[in-house]
Amino acid sequence: MNLKVWCAALICGVSVSAICAADLPFDKIVNAASLPQEWLTYWGDYHATRYRDLNQIDDANVDRLRLQWIFQTGVPGAFETVPLVLDGIMYFTANNSSAYAIDARSGRELWRFQYTIPKDARPCCGTLNRGLAMIGSRLFMATPDAHLVAIDSRNGRLLWDSEIIPANGIYGASMAPLAFKDKVVVGVAGGEKGNRGLIDAYDAATGKRAWRFWTIPAKGEPGNETWGGDSWKHGGAPTWMTGTYDPELNTVYWGVGNPGPDLYGDVRPGDNLYSDSVVALDGDTGKLKWHFQFTPHDVYDWDAAETPMLLDLPWNGKPRKLLVQANRNAFFYVLDRVTGEFLMAKPFARQTWAKDIDSKGRPVKNPGVEPSAEGTRVCPQSAGAANWMAPSYSPATGLFYFNVREGCDVYYSSPPVYEEGKGFWGSIFRGETGERQWGRVTALDPLTAKTKWTYKLYQAPWAGTLATSGNLLFAGDEDGYLMAFNAKTGELLWKINTGNRLATSPITFELDGKQYIAMPSGSVLLAFALPDEVVAGKKK
Amino acid sequence: MRIIILVALLVPPLAAAQTASDSLTKGRALFRSNCAFCHGATATGGRGPNLLGQLSHGDRDEDIQGVIRHGIPGTGMPRFRFAPDELRSLVDYIQSLRKGKPAPPPPAGDKAAGAKIYATHGCSGCHEIGNEGSVFGPSLTRVGAARSYDYLKQSVLDPSADIPDDFQGVTVVTADGHRYTGVRINEDTFTLQLRTADQQFHSFDKTRLKQLVVDKTSLMPPYRFGDDDLKNLLAYLSSLRGPVNANTDTRHATEVR
To answer: Is this complex's ipTM strictly greater than 0.90?
Structure first.
């Protein structure tokens, strides 16, 4: 009996739940919204709404949530993964390039994969990893030494290993890749090491590079004139977070990081394109369709790596394809994602750097906000009023949910010297002694940027959110609380101290008629669900 | 050939001169952004000691480098991870500030008399020296090494001028009307852990409190002393440079704000 037949026989068996590694066609990811029981991409879908139409757990019963199982990775270090869920199997990564498939019902391990970083490799930026992409029967993982690897989802075997670019102490990769059609797209980290950012696409079957987009144009290319002298060669503009994808437009949207040196801008006169921008690229060719720069000539380290969320909403009464982003610079932006046209920007947190955003979307800076040798206090802080933590959008409430960081920094500046493999900061930032930073879970109307509700957090958070049709908004905080709020009102309905700071976002899925909430914390993955009697009561 | 040798002999001093000035500029920038918030912009002291006087851990370049690289246990001085050339520039700059500056005179008072004032004013009711005293307030075991003279003076006369984050006072009123004031040991969005002056821990559910106030003033009252008594007390406090507990380690600079 070959494996396929055996597997089919197993599925037919009534007493056994099927956990045969499955196939994930492109169409299925395109229709992710109609498959709320699965979690198919880093964001749950291509648009990054992080909303699931699952309501077994709702605002009336969420306080009955109960721990179902704990998966111990045993791997120390940051656990910032977002698991994928398909056909009862959960796929995720942990720190130091390990990947796992586990039974989502029981938390039992099915296989484990370990990528070995060659001894002579010099990763730029540590060993954290934020998750996998999947298409067909393949999983894709980026590695600390800037490789992209394909793993067989059936047994965790390495299928191919492609070097994105030699790490050389200035490159690395930690984000979950983005897979669509026959391609896998990936970006790089290392902007603080004076590298040059890029976005690559690889053939999902072979690992052969399909296209490359440099986020800093070379000499002679349009945009290079926005970098004085040779500054473009070490200008950073990394691409360290997963982008989004519009299948109808076949367009990839990717947030680009800050220019380097971070805090000393005099050596790179100009706007420094495409740093701190979102770029819209053709999915087949990687050709630039449009770009929008949030913070021209940034001197605060305000990467635009925050989620470029894709929403289809009426703008001034007319249906429009929008791209929204709560940017690190403390402004919430709405763009037309077909043309890149700027539509709106409004502040959502305390900020002192911009007087206004003009009608083209360009900030008008306040006087006296440049980093200096003596230090200049500016809000938001360098880590931003928002960062890579995932926001959510609920079509049921029409609200955009995200974790806000409230804080300011004193920004110091001095001329740096570029040395390969070394930090290229141009000085340092530091919180004011005695001034605490704090956070907010916030719901705002994406069409007006008006805040509908806000819930104050003791510390500035590094965790994201999840919205469901159970009128719930889940969010994590820096002290380790996983919390559930009434999505309409912001009332806190449930919380649990998971025992470690949360630095990724919760997911939800449904299996055997039971809805789960899963959350990584510390080095463990936790899964919650309602007690059987509550589930049974709800079904009646 | 001779010309070449001549050039070779001439060039190094010129280059060295330029490098020295660059190095000082670099050192100044590093000092401003990494050291000034404790030691003051001109190194005359702040929360941390004055660097222009006698240095407890030696005043040779390698002594200062060692302190920067390893920190000083039991004080606020953390470990810094500078590149070798940065460290050199920083130490050069600190030495340039020290050069020609007269060391401030040692505290004028009588430390034995100061110890008596410490005892008679009940300071040990809140502070610990070695293993003696209360853990309610900051330990003073090594306060002479950790703080500048002026900072100690300010702490006695006006403790609210700078409240260390680890000793923030918080007052809560519970639902049944009980009032507690203590040092914030830990806090998150939902809970608060206080230590009251009797050295007991208390745990609170913040959502059930009637009131929670982060005190604007220090839990330590300001003290008024005559000139001599103040000098004697400060001489005593400045002399406290007790041994470091074996478990005490320095923190890394990034953890310090």
So the answer is: no
